[in-house]
């Protein structure tokens, strides 16, 4: 898949503006130049989706390296073998045309065109309309549109998290929380060991796969338990003086939301 096909997709779908040169069509108003190419450089995390706070399970991180290169990190709960949704710092080709940014990523037989029309951008916030077109074997497989607000990320905990940590949930509600102490050992190769208590001793659990990534402050984990793949997402609030704090916005089955928090200490023994 090349940028000519990308241009056809964007134009044909009328993503944000008309691509037609027919003089009979009304002329779209000229958008002010937001200097996107300069201001967008850096790391951003999704904060809102369609006017609502973004659930932590739905957050993505975009890192813009230059006017032509970027990478994105994403983990999704609605994953399958056809369109795997575990992307740790996936490289993307990128173009900037005025206030419109287009990212192209490729994996196996899947191509994704992610277009953002930037409505406003400053040092800390970026608001945009977006459209995602997923191509499978050259055919449109899925299309998603909406609005998003991203916040700039300056923290990077990908190195600080490495090591052994022990702690527990500090909020009243959590997806997997049981009020007990838990242990994780995060390794530099993107894998981790989850430990369970056997009497007074910590022993590795029977879980397999056990992969994680940290991009900025977004922590994504996945593992297999009893032949079922499970995933968990957190935002790392801080890692200071041997204490790590997590938080996450979750959703109940009835649509209501709650905030989970977790605190742990680094094990040095």
Task: Characterise this structure.
By secondary structure, this protein is mostly beta strands. It folds into two domains: 3-153, Beta Barrel (Lipocalin); 163-266, Domain of unknown function DUF4822 (Lipocalin, Beta Barrel), CATH 2.40.128.540. It is 5% helix and 57% strand. The chain is built from two helices and 18 strands. It has helices at residues 3-12, 36-39, and strands at residues 42-49, 52-53, 60-64, 69-75, 86-97, 100-107, 110-121, 125-136, 139-153, 163-169, 182-186, 192-198, 201-204, 208-215, 218-225, 228-240, 243-251, 257-266. The strands form two sheets. It has a nine-stranded antiparallel sheet with strand order 13-12-11-10-18-17-16-15-14, with no helix packed on it. Strands 1-3-4-5-6-7-8-9 form an eight-stranded antiparallel β-barrel. A hairpin with a 5-residue loop joins strand 17 (243-251) and strand 18. It is globular. Residues 11-15 and 17-21 have low confidence and may be disordered.
